[in-house]
Structure formats: C-alpha cells, structure tokens
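Deliverable D2.4 — example input (structure tokens):
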C-alpha cells in the first residue's frame, strides 16, 4: 500500500485537498443555515418540530439519489456534491443547536433580562455560550458525516478521496481502496478532534485559530485561480471509468505534448459514466474524451440511430460522425480496436453445456446475469439481447468491476463484458458469439466540441496519430498490465507509443 501511495503521491495530495475543500465548504454553509434557523426556531417553538422533521427527512434520502436528482439542476462536479453534503449536515447542527438553546435554564435567562440585557444580548452573552457544548457536538457529528459522505463525490466527477476507492473497486486493487478508506477515516478523526479542541479554547484564541485557518483555506483555494504565467493553451482531457480510458487519455496527453510542448494538459481519469462525460464536454468543463462509435450512435444520438444488422466499422463510423456534427461535436479518426459488448460465461460452464452463442444461454440451468446498470438500460445492451435472442434471465445490477468478482465467486453465471477487458483472460471467461449481430461496432475515437476542434487543429492532428492503431489484442494486453499487473496507465501508454514509433 505504501508503495502505491508513493507512486500516486501527487494524485493523493490533490484528492485529499479536494476532500478538505468540500468538507469545509459544506460545514460552513450548513452551519450558516442551521444555526440561525435553530435560533429562530427557539423563539418560534411551534414550528420547531416541523423543522426537525424536515431536516431529518433530508438524511433519510439515499445519497446517490440526491446526487442523481441534483445533476440535471446544477450539473456534475463539485456544486452537486456540495449541495448534497450541506443537506446531510443540516440535521445534526440544527438539532444540537436547538436542544442546546432550549435547555438553558429559564431562570438564568430571566436574570439576564432583569439586568437590562436585550433579547439579542441575552442570546449572545448567555444562551449561545451555555449552548456551546451542544452546538460543537453537532458540528463534530456533521464533520464526520460530511467526510464519509464526500467519498461519493467521485461518482459525479467532484474528486476527493472517493477517487481512490472508486478506482480500487474498478481495478480490484485493495491498496487503492485502503488508501482512500484510511485517509477518509483519518480525516474524519482529525476533523472531529479538531472541533473538540476548538471548543476547549478560550474565546480569543479560538478566534485567532479560526482566522488563521480561514486565511490558509481561502489562500489555498484561491491561489490556483490567480493570474499566473500561463501556457499558450490549456486543455482538459477526461476519461470514463476503467483502465482503457485512462490509458487512452495518457496517450492523448503524450502525443499532444510532443507536438505542442508548451500546451498544458490536465487529465481527469475515472471521471464517470458516459452521460457525465458528455455533459462535461458540452458544458465546456472538459475539452476531449475517448468515446466509441457505437456509443455515439446508440446513446448520444437522440433518437438512437438504427444501423443495418451487421453494419461494418466504416458504416458505424460515418453514422457516428454525422451524429456528432449534428450536435456541434467532432470525432477523430477511429482506432483499430473494436471494444464492443459481449456476453461472457465461465469457460467450464461453456464447455459443460456446449455454450457457443448467446442464444445457447437458454440451455444454461439456473442462469443468473450480473451486469452493469448502463448495459441493463441502454437500448443496444440487454434489452436488445433479450428481444433478439428471446432470453429472460434473472438479472442483478453490479459495478463494472464487481460483476467479474461475482462471476468468479459463482454468485452469477453470466456477465456483460467488453471484448478488450483484461478480466476475460484473468478469470478464464468465454465470450459467446453474437451470431445475430446485436452489438454494433465500438471503435475508439476522440470526441470534442466542434468549436474546440476548429480553434485547435494541432490537437486534432496529434490525437489522429492513433488512427488505425491498437488492435483488440494489444488493448487487452495493456488493460491486463494495468488491472492485473498493477502497472501505471501512463507508463503502459508511453511504452505502446514508443514501441510503435509514435513517441520519441
């Protein structure tokens, strides 16, 4: 684990800082909402129960559902994650603040008023100081809750320590999972004890510490945004979940830097699923990402393009190009590999029940399919398979990496796969023949906005150097090197480019 952490030191520091930023911002915003609301509720107690129920209701909402509901409103990335974290932090802060205020002895309050103190002065000089332990307890609870929930921010491209956990699950790499989990747990402990320590400080020292921390936090957040000596141009390249997109974006970056040494390239690996990448591209949060011709025609096209049965690579590419142009997007020339969908079963089951085609699955007793949510939903995925082959298998939705673990542990017997997946080799699976040609061709292409392509022709030329390169076997080998042998995606990408004389 230590070696993995050292090799990913820069990535870890970035993820940790992103996590801290989300935590602090969510805590401050939640406190600014919840504490004044609790003060108001203490003076209007007939509404307090309703507010407690409302804030409690927020916490019952599944975090993934909240994130999903926020995406259409505020988009992907940090804003959606921040709003979700604020929602989850409201209850402990509001509840503890309200209880702390209401538990102050009425006689003490009356004594303050008898001395001529106004309601505001009583609140500031008596109520809040006496309620401070309860308020700080609420803040401690909120800190721990925010830090734990913030790991889910990685699912919507908001970064944080969840990136390591998500990547570890995807790669079946325990070290990455432990790095993300331990760091998150350690951060939660530090945050909890930090709030407790602040509560014990004298008022003057607490103010000094808070001001100092605020200056450091704001400085660290603002510094990257200040005018600096800029590179002639900066481009952002993102990739979907998995080793293959990460390898490809490193290839893009290396080729771009070779042709344009002054260009600053920002990489965002494991950014999310197709819809997240597409939205980020069209909203100009990223400039380029690896996509597939079949995905463009089946998923990004509205409505999906109906291709002739058995359409070849060129037909699919031209259709994808047309779809892209209609949406003011541009695709690069295709690479050679066809990372299409496949239906896979363990080799021993295939041999035992003579399974060679997808249609043969009707002869597999007690069959159960474990498939990604995207495959179960997309029109050219499981719905098309069931309709074409007349199958009706029991199905369960699984994370892309976990479906392979599930088939290895015999929890499922059928999985969706990509033809270049390293796990096909690793877990001794057999891809069944799609003899009715359900799956379209999925050649890799670079997808970018047309305005970006027009103003950056040198970037297009650099990426197009991969046109016609990378066979299925080569892609599977590279995926195996990253996923199984735990080699760096960047190094695997560079090794390929140098071996094929695309990189000096």
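Example output (designed residues):
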């Amino acid at each position: 684990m230590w070696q993995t952490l050292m090799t990913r030191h820069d990535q870890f520091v970035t993820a940790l800082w992103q996590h801290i930023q989300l935590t602090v911002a969510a805590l401050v915003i939640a406190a600014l909402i919840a504490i004044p609301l609790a003060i108001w509720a203490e003076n209007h107690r007939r509404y307090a129960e309703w507010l407690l129920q409302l804030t409690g209701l927020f916490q019952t909402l599944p975090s993934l559902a909240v994130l999903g509901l926020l995406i259409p409103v505020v988009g992907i990335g940090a804003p959606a994650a921040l709003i979700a974290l604020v929602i989850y932090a409201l209850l402990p802060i509001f509840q503890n603040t309200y209880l702390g205020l209401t538990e102050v002895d009425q006689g003490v309050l009356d004594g303050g008023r008898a001395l001529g103190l106004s309601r505001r002065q009583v609140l500031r000089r008596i109520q809040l100081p006496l309620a401070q332990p309860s308020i700080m307890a609420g803040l401690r609870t909120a800190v721990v809750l925010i830090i734990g929930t913030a790991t889910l921010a990685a699912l919507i491209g908001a970064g944080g320590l969840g990136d390591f956990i998500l990547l570890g699950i995807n790669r079946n790499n325990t070290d990455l999972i432990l790095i993300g989990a331990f760091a998150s747990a350690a951060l939660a402990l530090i945050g909890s004890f930090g709030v407790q320590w602040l509560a014990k400080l004298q008022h003057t020292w607490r103010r000094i510490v808070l001001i100092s921390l605020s200056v450091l936090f704001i400085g660290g957040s603002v510094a990257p945004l200040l005018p600096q000596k800029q590179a002639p141009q900066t481009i952002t390249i993102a990739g979907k979940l998995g080793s293959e997109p990460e390898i490809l974006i490193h290839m893009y970056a290396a080729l771009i830097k070779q042709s344009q040494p002054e260009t600053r390239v920002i990489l965002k690996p494991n950014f999310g699923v197709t819809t997240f990448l597409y939205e980020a591209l069209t909203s100009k949060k990223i400039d380029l990402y690896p996509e597939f011709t079949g995905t463009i025609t089946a998923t990004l096209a509205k409505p999906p393009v109906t291709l002739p049965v058995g359409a070849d690579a060129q037909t699919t590419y031209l259709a994808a190009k047309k779809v892209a142009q209609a949406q003011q997007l541009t695709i690069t020339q295709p690479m050679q590999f066809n990372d299409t969908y496949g239906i896979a079963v363990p080799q021993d089951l295939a041999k035992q029940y003579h399974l060679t085609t997808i249609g043969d699955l009707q002869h597999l007793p007690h069959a159960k399919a474990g498939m990604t949510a995207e495959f179960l939903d997309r029109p050219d995925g499981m719905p098309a398979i069931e309709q074409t082959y007349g199958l009706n298998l029991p199905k369960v939705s699984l994370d892309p990496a976990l479906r392979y673990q599930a088939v290895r542990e015999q929890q499922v017997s059928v999985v969706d796969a990509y033809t270049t997946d390293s796990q096909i080799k690793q877990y001794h699976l057999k891809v069944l023949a799609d003899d009715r040609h359900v799956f379209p061709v999925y050649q890799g292409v670079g997808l970018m906005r047309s305005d970006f392509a027009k103003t950056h022709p040198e970037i297009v030329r650099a990426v197009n150097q991969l046109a016609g390169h990378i066979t299925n076997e080569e892609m599977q080998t590279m995926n195996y090197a990253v996923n199984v042998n735990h080699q760096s995606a960047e190094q695997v990408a560079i090794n390929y480019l140098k071996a094929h004389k695309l990189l000096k």
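The longest strand covers residues 264-272.
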